Amino acid sequence: AVIDTQGTFDNKSSFRDNSTVFAMSLLISSLTVYNIHGNLQENDMTNLNFFLEFGRMADNSGMKPFQDIMFLVRDWFNGDQFPYGLTGGEQYLNGFMQIDGSQTEENKELRKKLPDFFNKMSC
């Protein structure tokens, strides 16, 4: 199913509205494209975590609640370090998902549990 939803965090929608739309699209889509500007940041992951928990509350099947997620980083400015396309995106995502001592406990936990939510993650 292809679903095009509104963007999140505009100045006209509430956080609750955004969360509901994102979580429902996660539940019924085979592929969720999480559109991010510039690069992945911790606040993107914090927002995703909230959406995931919201969506998981609606699903009690015991299986992975969502199918696939692709992080689409638009206006990419690190093409010299990570090339454009899926290969560079996978390298970038793998590096971003690494756990290190500088991250908060919440962000470490999200990195650990994110693969439990999705069958496939790509960038």
Structure description:
- This protein has 123 residues and is an alpha/beta fold.
- It contains four helices and three strands; from the N terminus they run αβαβααβ.
- The chain has helices at residues 15-28, 42-57, 86-96, 105-117, and strands spanning 31-37, 68-74, 120-122.
- Strands 1-2-3 form a three-stranded parallel sheet.
- The model has no long low-confidence stretch (mean pLDDT 83).
Write the layout of secondary structure elements.
Elements: H1 15-28, E1 31-37, H2 42-57, E2 68-74, H3 86-96, H4 105-117, E3 120-122
Parallel strand pairs: 1-2, 2-3
Helix pairs in contact: 1-2, 2-4
Please name the defining characteristics of this protein.
alpha/beta, globular, single chain, 14% strand, 44% helix, 3 strands, three-stranded parallel sheet, 123 residues
